Structure formats: structure tokens, C-alpha cells
Amino acid sequence: LFALLSGLDPGQRPTLPLLVFATDNLVVGYLYGPIAVSIYYITFQPGSMLNQFILRITDNFTPTINIWYANREYDKLRSSFLFIFRVTFPLTVLTLWGIVFCTEPLISIWVGNSSYLQQPMALWCGLFSASIILGHVANAYVMAEGKIKTLGYVALGEGILNLLLSILLGKSLGSHGVMMASFIANVPTFIYLYFRALQVLDYKKGF
Predict the structure, then answer these.
(1) What does the pLDDT look like over 169-206, one tens digit per residue?
(2) Which of the residues 128, 129, 167, 172 has the least number of beta carbons within 10 Å of its own beta carbon?
(3) pTM here?
């Protein structure tokens, strides 16, 4: 909000990711108290840590993607996009499966079953993680173009929607409703990223 009120480009403000990713614990704490926040955080952590490894696949290609875009080497950009997606997609499916089915036993071994937020929390964590991982692939190509003002507004909209839905669904469904809200709010951003990425790749010329 500060970015908008101050007239700065929201796409270049570091506060926007915090609005998207850092409100969950605040909402859960507001609605259900500190113990619920601890359980929510612990349940979310295994999937969050696993995400970081898969996100690095795209990150390792980012410098080269930027060079290819600067040189307008669209054939290489399209080929790299398909390669990264084909590598990332099956890993994303495995991540989704792992989060849904392995979070509970992992947390039970780690800190005890009492610290696990029951299903469908793990399902929404898995879906949210899948959306973030695959969206990150498209995001690398959108960022290479450098025209990210609209993306900034999309991210701001996601943050506001996430906050409102988190409160609404958190009240009506419980703590897992907050994670459900994060996934739902991320869907428009995911769609926008792939829409813009395909434009950057000049997809009409084929892959």
C-alpha cells in the first residue's frame, strides 16, 4: 500500500511478497491464538522447505534467461522454458504428493502428532506449493522482460485478496481455511504469469 500511496512502482517494492506470504500467521493468531499459530506454522514448514530446493532449478537458469532475452534469442528462450517446465512439473507432482501424505508422519516424528494441523491443511499446503513452484518458472521470463509494473499491481491484489479471504475462510472453516485462502488468492497471479510469459516468449512462432 505504501508503494501505491507514495507513487513508487509496486513491482519494485520488497513489501509486496510480505503482504502475500506473511499474513497467514497474523490471521491465525488473531482468530485462534498463539498455540494455533505454532501448529499452523509447524504444519506448513515441511512443504515450505521442500519448495526451496525445487525453486532453485529455475533460479539457476535466470542469469542465462536474462542474457537470451537481452539478445532476443527467442528460440533458446522457448526451448529453455519447455526444458525447465518438463523438469519442474514431475517434481511438483511429487512435492504435492509428499506434502499431502508425508507431512503428518514427518511432524509426528519431529515434534509429535499434537503439533500437526489435520487435513485438509496438508492438501491446501500442497496445492499452494505447486502453484508457487510452477508460477516461479513463468515468473523468470516475465522478470527478464523487465516490465513488471502490472505484475506489481497483480501481486498487491493477491495480497489484499489473501488477507480478506484468510479472515473470511479462517473464521468459517478454521485454521486450514487460511491456507486455502492463500491458494485461491494465488490462482489469478499464476494465470497472469503464464499469460505474460507466453507473450514474452513470442509463443505464436511455436515452441
Answers:
(1) 999 999 999 999 999 999 999 999 999 999 999 877 66
(2) 172
(3) 0.87
